[in-house]
Design brief:
- The radius of gyration is 25 Å and the shape is elongated.
- It has a 6-stranded mixed beta sheet with strand order 2-3-4-5-6-7, with helices on both faces.
- The protein contains 5 helices and 15 strands.
- The longest helix has 37 residues.
- It folds into 2 domains: 74 residues; 178 residues, no CATH class.
- A hairpin with a 2-residue loop joins β6 and β7.
- It is an alpha+beta fold.
- Bound molecules: zinc ion.
- Zinc ion (ZN) binds next to loops.
């Protein structure tokens, strides 16, 4: 089955996620506003003369609660936008350069960690795109604001909570492969499918393209010869990509994918 063979329309998902940090502040503010209001209303029954005063306090508490909810909603929306547009893009490499003076340390699994503004960037080197995709496929689930990057001589592959990503073009010809088939012809891939949260992937790529940053939609290409699934950069139209495992050319066609955003329609 070949997915993404035709035009796909994706909607921008509404901001729905909040970090625990914001949730705690939100509950604290609501408690601080609602609890005095509750006390005020109870006291109002006991002391008739101060009913108006307590009532005003109660209304003020309610107003502050609404303002607090509004502010927190705006904060969490901006934060999501920041995740989609700025961090998962070429800017992470720029940020890495900027924070080069920060503490950098490795761990036993081979990853080097760099933290910047609440985001974590793990990186390591590998010999081939095949090795990089194996390392990234085996990561399991990835928490928000965490980015894994594997550098190879043929390009850099990344993975985050939504799926695979690249920050610059990955080589498509004469790749270093682990099990070369030695054939010069080409095959048609068995499939070209999504990986991870494709709705968020498409939206992220759309926002990055709109802001002038490098971004490509990564899809899993199942090799027509060996069946290995390579995460490859895709674009609208004819695509020729070498299998990361056997190196044979896979030729296929990807349909146009249009993403609707509040700033317009973007083809990814
Ligand atoms: Zn193959």
């Amino acid at each position: 089955m070949v997915l993404f063979g035709s035009t796909v329309f994706a909607q921008v998902p509404a901001p729905a996620e909040q970090t625990n940090y914001h949730g705690i502040i939100f509950l604290l503010i609501v408690f601080l506003c609602v609890f005095p209001m509750y006390i005020c209303l109870r006291r109002a029954d006991e002391v008739y003369s101060s009913k108006i005063v307590w009532g005003i306090w109660g209304i003020l508490g309610l107003v502050f609660s609404y303002i607090a909810v509004l502010i927190l909603y705006l904060i969490s929306s901006d934060k999501l936008r920041f995740d989609n547009v700025k961090i998962k893009s070429g800017s992470s490499r720029e940020q890495k350069t900027q924070v080069a003076g920060n503490k950098r340390f490795g761990n036993e699994s081979g990853w080097s960690l760099q933290s910047s503004g609440g985001s974590r960037y793990y990186s390591q080197n590998a010999d081939s795109l095949y090795a990089a995709s194996e390392i990234l496929k085996n990561l399991g689930s990835i928490p928000p604001q965490t980015y894994y990057l594997v550098d190879t001589p043929d390009g850099t592959l990344g993975r985050d909570i939504n799926g695979f990503f690249t920050e610059s073009p990955v080589k498509t010809q004469n790749l270093k492969v682990d099990n070369p088939c030695g054939e010069t012809g080409s095959v048609q891939p068995q499939s070209l499918t999504g990986y991870g949260d494709m709705n968020k992937n498409q939206t992220g790529v759309a926002y990055q393209k709109m802001s002038g940053q490098y971004a490509r939609l990564i899809l899993m290409m199942k090799c027509g010869k060996c069946g290995y699934e390579s995460p490859v950069e895709t674009e609208t139209g004819d695509i020729e990509r070498e299998c990361y495992n056997c190196g044979i050319k896979n030729r296929t066609h990807r349909g146009k994918i249009s993403v609707y955003t509040e700033m317009g329609v973007v083809d990814v």
